[in-house]
Amino acid sequence: RAPAGLEGALFRNGPGKFRRTGGSATHWFDGDGLMRAFRVRDGQATLEARFADTPKRRWESEIDAVVTPGFGTVGDASRARIGSPDDANAANTAVMVAGDEVWALWEGGSPMAMDASDLSTRRFVTLRDDLKGMPFQAHPRYDPDGTVWNIGLWGDRMIVWRLNADRSLHTAEVVHLPRASYMHDFTATARHLVIVMQPWVFDHDGMPYASRFAWKPELGTQVMVIDKADLTRTRIFELPTFSYFHLGDAWEDASGTIRFDVAAGRDVSFAMDGARVLVAGHGTVAGDPADLSLVTLHTDGRAEMVRSGVAAEFPRSDPRRAGLARRYTVHVAGERGGRPLPTGLAVQDWETGRSDAFNFGADVIMEEANWVPKPGRSGERDAWLVAPAINLREGVTELHAFDAARVSDGPVASWRADIALPAGFHGIWAG
Fold first, then answer.
1. Which of 29, 156, 375, 409 is in Cβ range 3.0-4.6 Å of 71 for a Cys bridge?
2. What pLDDT is recorded for position 284?
3. Least confident of 53-67, 80-94, 269-283, 411-425
4. What are phi and psi of 270, to 5 degrees?
5. Contact, 427 vs 368, CB < 8 A?
6. 3-state SS class at 220
7. Which neighbouring-strand residues pair with 260?
8. Residue 87, helix vs strand vs coil
9. pTM of this prediction?
10. How far is the CA of 334 from the CAs of 294, 295, 357, 361, 400, in angstroms?
11. How many CB atoms are located within 10 Å of the residue 215 CB?
C-alpha cells in the first residue's frame, strides 16, 4: 500500500513496438511510442498503456513493416510515407501534462496530444499555424510560475519555445548556434537557458538521422548560456570533451555562477552501436556507463567539470526547485560495461559528495524516477521517488516508491503488474 498522501498518476513514455513481419526497427530509439499511466489511489496502483496513434504507426501497421527512417533505423524510402517531419514522428520519448491531456514528445517534430483519462490519441499539437511540424524536443524546462521553455533543432539554428502555464504559445524565436551539434537535452536556471554542445556534430546528409553526425573529440564541448529576457545576449564556455544525453536542472548563485549536473559519457558508441544491440537481442553492448558529473560556469569565463565516479543516467531533481539552488539529484544506478541497464536507484548529495543508493540486483531493470513532494512539506528530501522497474525473474513490470531521505532502506511501497512492458524513457508525475 502507498504511504499516506501519495496519490496521483505517473505518465511514462517510451518505445514499445520494434518488430514487424516485413521489416523491423533496428535501434532502441525508433520503436513506436507506448504511453503508460501508473495511477495510485487509496493505497492501490493500476497500470494501463496505449500506443500513440501516429501516421507512422498506422501506415506501418497496414503494411506490417517498419519502413520509416529514424534515429538509427535506415527504413525503406521506397515504401515510407513522409511528407512532413510528423509523418516520421514516433511520439516515443517523453511526456508533458497539458490540462486534461498528456503530450507525447519526440525530438524531431510536434507533440502528440493524448487523453489523460484513457490515453486515446487526439491530434498533433500546433502551437502556431506557421510553426506546424517544427521540432519540439523531449526535455522541456519549467519555471516556478509554470512557464515552459523548450528548444527545437535543425542544423546550427535552434528555435526557442516559450509556453504559458496553460501550454499556449508565448513566443517562439530562432537562435543561431556556434556549431550544429546533436543535443537531446538542454537545461535552465531561473534566468538563463543552458545549451550544451557536445562534439558530435553535423557532417553530411543521409539516413538514418544519427549517421549525419561525426564524433570529433578534438573540438571539445561548448556551453552556450542565453539570457531568458533577451535571447540575443549569449556567452560561450569551453569544456573538455564529453558526450551526453541527459542533464539535470541548472541553478545559479548570487554571484552569477551557474552549476548543473550531467550524465557524462566518454564517446557516442552506445548511441551508435550499443542501442542497436539492445534491439537485436544479441552481441556485446558498446559503450561505458555515463558518469554523474557537476559542471560549474564561472562569471569570469572559466568552466570546469568534476566527475563523481558514480555510474548514472536519467538525473532528476525536486520540481519545486527547478532552476533554483538545490542539493540533491536522483538517478538510476548499477550500470556496468556490457550491460547498460540500471539495477538500482541513488540520490547524490552535491554538498557532501555522498551517494545514498539501493540496488535490486541483476534480475531487475530500473527505470527513471520522478521526484514527488510530500503534501504540506517543503524540505528538498521531503519527497517520494516513484519509479517503475522490470522484474526479469518474474517477467512483470513493477512500480516502486522510495523515501527520498532514505533510499538505501529500499522501497516503502511496491506494486506488481501481471505483464511486463518494455523499458520506457521519461515520465512526469501528475498529483
1. 29
2. 84
3. 269-283
4. -70, -45
5. yes
6. coil
7. 295
8. helix
9. 0.96
10. 19, 22, 9, 8, 17
11. 18
